Amino acid sequence: MENRAILNVDGLVKHFPVGRTSFLEDISSLIRKSARVVHAVDGVSFELEKNETLGLVGESGCGKTTLARTVLLLTRPTTGRITFEGTDITRLKDADLKKIRNKMQIVFQDPFSSLDPRMRTKDIVTEPLVASGVKDKNAIMKMAGEALESVGLKSEHLDRFPHEFSGGQRQRIGVARALVTKPRLMVLDEPTSSLDASIQAQVLGLLRSLQNEFELSYLLISHNVNVVYYMSNRIAVMYLGKIVESADADNIVNKPMHPYTAALISAVPRPNPKLRRELVEIKGEVPSPINPPSGCRYHPRCPRATEKCALEEPTLVELEKNHFVACYHPLG
Amino acid sequence: MSTDELVKVEGLRLIFETLYGTVKALSGVDLTIKRREVLGLVGESGCGKTVLGLSIIGLLPIPPGKILDGKIYYQGRNLLELSDKDMEKVRGTGITMIFQEPMTALNPVFTVGDQITESIKVRSERSSERPHREKAEKPRMRPRSKNSWSNEVIEALKLVRISDPQSIVRRYPHELSGGMRQRVMTAMALAAKPSLMIADEPTTAVDVTTQAQVLKLMRELMEEVNTSILFISHDFGVIAEISDRVAVMYAGNIVEEAPVYELFESPLHPYTRALLASLPSVASKKKGLEAIAGEVPSLVALPPGCAFHPRCRRAKKECSLVVPKLTEVSPNHKVACLPD
Known about the structure:
The complex is a heterodimer. Chain A has one domain (about 5-105, about 185-325): 3-Layer(aba) Sandwich (Rossmann fold), CATH 3.40.50. Chain A has helices spanning about 25-30, 65-70, 95-100, 120-130, 135-150, 165-180, 195-215, 225-230, 250-255, 260-265, 305-310, and strands at about 5-15, 35-50, 55, 80-85, 85-90, 105, 185-190, 215-220, 235-240, 240-250, 315-320, 325. Chain A is of the alpha/beta class. Chain B is an alpha/beta fold. Chain B has helices at about 50-55, 85-90, 100-105, 110-125, 150-160, 165-170, 180-190, 210-225, 235-240, 260-265, 270-275, 285; strands spanning about 5-20, 20-35, 40, 65-75, 75-80, 95-100, 195-200, 230-235, 245-250, 255-260, 325-330, 335. Classes of the chains: A alpha/beta, B alpha/beta.
């Protein structure tokens, strides 16, 4: 089990300080010895196995993108450990980290803003290689050509600029750029949410076949439950900086045990009018991550909440095989 | 026009002259919106669904837009022939619209109450029989004392299930969540009890749990206020959830129109079928998605004949020659595809 895990995240915390709002507040935080912070990611642990896709789903502001960026050390975690292929990368110096970065890549959400409009495709795709210190120009171009080919673009596209491509093609370039360094782990941050339905299917199909071809592990982040379900082996549901439930994709969708997951799944519109079903309504709105509720963070909105939920924070417990739930009153 | 028809669009052709050529935004659209129904208008980005919505409510800037042909009937009158003055009376009273991004549609420097007051005021001016002032006095919005909100404003907010309207009226848009802003927009659009509300991707900018609430609210309000909704979306899931009937658009044309159950159960147009097969869902996980080959064509250079034929698996020779007409193939089910 241990050697199968390519990525191991343990107790990851990422807080962002909030800009000071008043002098008095500064004083009060000095006295309390705690500054006001956004609890973007607050104690998240998970494992990602080789050739596996872990889907991370949650609503906007739940911390899923911060988690993705922190896993890749694009921002440094506040505390917690990230072990990639057996190495604790949070302890590495920048120079050593750079050597490992090739093995971990990311595909961004918006293919319009994540490609430099003044760079040609070949420069975009080869930049990771140049940055990692590959000198041999011929080798670089060969690898770029291969990467483009594997995402379904042709070598004639090498000299074009991003604006000459459609959204779907741009996202393919984004994938090629990630693929060119032959990574083991790929973080996909909402890879299709800015694409149309017919193009989304193309890109999802591509990502799936690349995974098989190159034995990639995916950490897929999306607010779209359908996309996450389609792509993932396992799904983790995030709410206000915490994972509240994680299980096999089928179990999350068909047998959710956390009340939040159940509400989230019931809200997903499905392209079948026969499946219009009773909505599990959620009271109120997502609280601020600056001042998250005590105990279980979902308790103010939860229909099953009791006194205990407001006082003590539930931890992830394996209620069924491979089905982890952080709730005192799980469903089912 | 039969009595249960509210809006009837006939052969609407609309272009934009641009530096890059003529954009054929709508090429002969036929569409009927019935009384008291939610008509879902679904299509991918750039297919012309927003342009169609805007031209019904007369908000499309002309020029650069240019209507070549067609009619839009509403209450027996062709909206395209109305004077600006008369159209203004229809807009905001008989037909209203809510937009995709409530943050940009609401004015950030005025409170919610001020903005709803403005819309109510403008509306009462327009619907009254008083002679229309040539240079309409710009509705002024002034800061007001705390509790001077008219009942109408409070009622409008109550209608959209805002539980504490007295405190919401005093807030600015940035103080509200996305779902709340969308409710405020809906309140403004429905305060006039319009006969048609055009909702252009109203839930695209909000989270799924909020989206589900907004959709549920809209269905309920349709019954309460007795209005029809033209619901524009790119999301087949949302469309399935809210619509009574559905019209599918592709490259400036309606390619299929049917009652919602029939459309999802037995789609007839190859594009509708392919799109439904390309959606990730519980059923598609095992067998994989069937992507549609190629890309949506540019509206500047539409392929000849059926615009979908270059991507269509069932295309034959005639498809590149003849533009198929939207024809009724079974009761209430229309499709624009050449018969086999």
